[in-house]
Amino acid sequence: MTLFHYRARDRTGALVQGDVDTSSVDELKENLSHQGLIPLKVEPVHSGFWSLAWFTRLFQRVKPEELMVFTRQFHTLFRAGVSMDTILGTMVKQLPKGTLRNALMQIRTDIGSGATLAQSFRRHPNVFNELYCSMLAAGEEAGILDHVLKNLSQLLQKEDEIHRGVKGAVLYPKIIVTVLVGATTFLMIFVVPRFVSFYAHYKAELPLPTKIVIAISNFVVHEWYLALGIMVLGVFLYHRFASTNVGRLRIDRLRFRFPVFGELHLKVANARFGHIMAALYGSGLALPRALEVVANVIGNRAYAQEVIKVRDHIQKGSTLSEAMASQLYFSPVMIETTAVGERAGALDELLATVAEHYELEVQHMIKNLTTLLEPLLLVGIFGMVLTLALAIFLPIWNLTSVIRR
User: Fold this and answer.
1) pLDDT tens digits for range 199-226
2) How many C-beta neighbours within 10 Å does residue 24 have?
3) Per the structure, how many domains does the chain have?
4) Residue 109 resides in a domain
5) pTM
6) DSSP 15
7) Are 68 and 109 in the same domain?
């Protein structure tokens, strides 16, 4: 997948532009044509670490909880029979100044000019992603917008819960590692040099651990600019590598292979796949199109690549469960539940059920994550303390013989 920037005209002649993550220029142009847009210009966005596009999108982001609250209120007002113009006007009045409020003001104007709800929302891809707009389009076409808005609000809530859970799970390790690095840096800058001058007074032969720690301390104290440069260069090269298709694919594959976190990421991906597919298929979207949307919003290139392969198999005549069985990241539980759903004609219900199963597993794993990570953290802390202790106190234990000599 590559991020493309497009400029197009709608049926009324109005200019529409935005950024879309897709596999090729031809696919993007085809999608724009399906939406009733005439492409004028399509070009890849260079999303490197220092790019202006990355910087701009950083400040135009809408918080997930903000979008979730808006969708829930939108559904409530629509279900109560309030007109679309009044709904959008009410939402604009209560929202603070920002990206979401500006988008809703433009959407209200576009709808008043004759555009459909989905067309108006699609003109703001930095706020409403492809999943959101595709579900709105399906709801409008099938006349079940009330049902779709309800599904959307529930889906956004589940996505937010999973995101918060994973974010909270990695908070404890981040704090421990940050404190560990900070304490080590303090010792290298302020403590170790004092011991160096103390040992140098006696001109004694220092043990290997002490020599290693002194060398590291000298590098940090006297060559700090090189250390800082190496860190900055490493971050820059990582983001440059991650901004390429090959780099992002390899990094996302690596996420599934990490100890402890690899299994967590895979369960999160399966939970998201189940929830999103259930919402899209239940809204009346065709299976191949639903899989395309999932691939664009799943958030992992390696998993998205397999979803696209599943779509290709389905277009050749395979069932969903058969196509999933030939891939790596779909679990046996997910595949078997999908097969049962296809035979029973309740695919969306059973996909939602298996997604809830994986969501519970994610929550259970997050609760136990601290216990799973404690051995690794303890080994790291013990290793650092032991190295520093040996480096500092071994020469002290030898001072008696040094002083006698």
Assistant:
1) 666 666 777 878 888 888 888 888 888 8
2) 12
3) 2
4) yes
5) 0.70
6) E
7) yes
